[in-house]
């Protein structure tokens, strides 16, 4: 006769991963560089060389990289390079949605790209005044891209990137 001291095994209830992010609060960022913008207060900004920035999201393990270039009669080259950078992700992307941005009052013109699928980046943009200033931005996560897994964080940061682009002001 065999006896056991273990309790009966019960199945565990089904569960879902819950990712809660705080409601975004934005602060104005300005320094010596020729442009300024609003950014999420939860993010940590670090200035790189030539007025480029890394905006880190430690809780989401992601970074937005901003690059600034001066326009010197080379706007077509800068536009082509920004578009080429985005469309290099077409191999892994399910689709790329383009959203033009025009703000006549601030003289800011650009394009916001939403990249869906397992691409290295989920969002990119460029903004320019077509005469003097050109800014590009892209987000990268610190993990191998699995779109379903990072979708909540990617959506949150896409909104931040769009807000950043829409609040760019040239000095």
What ranges have pLDDT less than 50 throughout 5 or more consecutive residues?
A: none
Task: Spell the H/E element sequence.
Answer: EEEEEHEEEEHE
**Strands, count:** 10
Residue share in β-strands: 35-45%
Instruction: Quote the average pLDDT.
Output: 87
Report on the architecture of this protein.
Strand 4 (53-57) and strand 5 form a beta hairpin. The strands form two sheets. A seven-stranded antiparallel β-sheet has the order 3-4-5-9-8-7-6, with helices on both faces. A three-stranded antiparallel β-sheet has the order 1-2-10. With 171 residues, it is α+β, with helices and mostly antiparallel strands. The chain is elongated. 19% of the residues lie in helices and 39% in strands. It contains two helices and ten strands, in the order E-E-E-E-E-H-E-E-E-E-H-E.
Question: Secondary structure elements and their pairing?
Answer:
Blueprint: E1 26-29, E2 35-40, E3 44-47, E4 53-57, E5 62-70, H1 75-87, E6 93-103, E7 108-117, E8 123-128, E9 133-141, H2 147-166, E10 169-170
Antiparallel strand pairs: 1-2, 2-10, 3-4, 4-5, 5-9, 6-7, 7-8, 8-9
List its traits.
single chain, 19% helix, alpha+beta, 171 residues, 3-stranded antiparallel sheet, 2 helices
In short:
Helix content is 19%, strand content 39%. The chain is an alpha+beta fold. A hairpin with a 4-residue loop joins β4 and β5.
């Amino acid at each position: 006769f065999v006896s056991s001291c273990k309790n009966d095994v019960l199945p565990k209830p089904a569960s879902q991963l819950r990712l809660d992010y705080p409601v975004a609060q934005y602060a104005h960022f300005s320094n010596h560089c020729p442009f300024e913008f609003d950014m999420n207060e939860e993010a940590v900004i670090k200035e790189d060389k030539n007025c480029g920035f890394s905006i880190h999201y430690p809780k989401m393990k992601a970074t937005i990289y901003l690059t600034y270039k001066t326009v010197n009669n080379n706007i077509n080259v800068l536009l082509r390079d920004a578009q080429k950078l985005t469309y290099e992700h077409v191999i892994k992307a399910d689709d790329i949605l383009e959203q033009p941005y025009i703000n006549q009052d601030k003289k800011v013109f650009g394009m916001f790209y939403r990249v869906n699928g397992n691409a290295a980046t989920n969002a990119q943009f460029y903004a320019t005044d077509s005469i003097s200033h050109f800014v590009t931005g892209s987000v990268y996560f610190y993990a191998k891209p699995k779109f379903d897994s990072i979708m909540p964080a990617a959506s949150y940061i896409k909104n931040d990137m769009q807000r950043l682009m829409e609040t760019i002001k040239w000095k």
